From TrEMBL:
UniProt-recorded name of the protein: Uncharacterized protein
Organism: Nonlabens tegetincola
Superkingdom of source: Bacteria
Length: 96
C-alpha cells in the first residue's frame, strides 16, 4: 500500500519537472508507472533465478529496488529533455 503512495508522489515530482519544461505529463507518467512495474518484476525474477528464496518477504525490497532503478532512469530522461520554446499569442516565438 505504501508503495502505491510512493509511485504517486514520484509521478507528481516528474510531472512538475515536465510542466516546467513545457511538456504534457500524461504519457511520461504512464511510461514511468509501466517501467516501475516492469522493473519490479524483472528484478524479482532475477533474484529468484540467482538465489534460492525461502521467504517471500525477502522479495519486497528487491522489487522496490527495481522500481527505484526505473525512477532513476526516468528522472535522468526527464531532466535531459530540452525546454520547449513557448509560442506567443501573436504567433511569434519567445526565447526566454
Amino acid at each position: 500500500m505504501l508503495e502505491i503512495f510512493l509511485v504517486i508522489w514520484l509521478s507528481k515530482k516528474l510531472g512538475e519537472i515536465l510542466e516546467e519544461k513545457g511538456y504534457k505529463k500524461g504519457w511520461y507518467i504512464a511510461m514511468f508507472v509501466g517501467s516501475w512495474i516492469f522493473c519490479e518484476f524483472v528484478m524479482i525474477l532475477i533474484f529468484i533465478m540467482l538465489f534460492s528464496v525461502e521467504n517471500n518477504l525477502a522479495l519486497i525490497p528487491v522489487g522496490i529496488c527495481g522500481g527505484a532503478i526505473a525512477y532513476g532512469c526516468m528522472y535522468l530522461f526527464v531532466n535531459s529533455l530540452p525546454e520547449k520554446e513557448v509560442e506567443d499569442i501573436r504567433g511569434e516565438f519567445k526565447l526566454d
